[in-house]
Amino acid sequence: MPLRQPVAAGRFYPDDPEALRAALRACLTPKELPDPAGARPHGAGSRLVGVMLPHAGYVYSGRVAGAVLAGPWGAGTVGAALPRRCIVLCPNHTGRGHPLGVWPDGAWRTPLGDVPVDAGLAAALCGRGGFAPDTDCHLGEHAIEVLLPFLQYLPAPAANAAPGMSAVSGADAAPPSQARAIVPVCVGVRRPEVLRAAGLALGAALLVAQAEDDPVGLIVSSDMNHYEDQQTTLQKDGLALQQTLACDPDALLTTVEQSRCSMCGAAPMAVALYALRALGEPWAELAAYDTSASATGDAAQVVGYAGLRFGVQ
């Protein structure tokens, strides 16, 4: 079975396990971030399905990812409430491989150990909605790998446990009995009709898992607008986030194209939103937002980072 070796360790995040744990602790420690316009509390009876997290170096975007995962949900946190199994959707920065490539089995390695791939769930997804098994699109892609140490560090519910009921905390990494499993999906296409078909197939897979009492979560990996000044980035990101928070994938795709917002994960986010709408009445809320200017002090050329949580009523 294939073992995907890390390509971003030592560049985007520390390659030493102890230094990585320290970085994760810092990212997950509550801290002040700019108040995200558009945030709203989830309603009674809401179910958390997934999150959107940024994938830059931890020094730039780690505190946004941490703010989402350490944020409150029920009696615990969002990170603890995510299901044990998660499909992780990312953009394709390399241009390699299948346009909807699914890593089929094996594991992904980080300095904290190996993250198993749920081969059964991957097989259920492949052959539907344009998804196909492919490792090539993932080999040089950092956008999923950067998020995996967060999943390894945080506890996960046991199999068949109700989402949101995990309250384990205080450990430096989740014990093996609570290890998460993933299905990595690299999205390298932006045609709405292709993304819609993929989202509907993804939604169907989530419904099957839900019926089997072993729900599957969604994690979308995306940064926001790239390499423009702070004011322009805030404006473009605001337009894209407005449509994302409205759970309108068609409008999101149209908006990023018309505004020339370089949100790299617009396509995987659209797939997630199409799937979400197949599950029930969707909701999304902005948990954190920042730009690289907070780390660099340079507002002339920034990258935007947004952290969202989403689900259904």
From TrEMBL:
InterPro entries: MEMO1_fam. Pfam families: Memo (PF01875). Belongs to the MEMO1 family. This is MEMO1 family protein SAMN05192586_102175. NCBIfam families: AmmeMemoSam_B. It comes from the Bacteria.
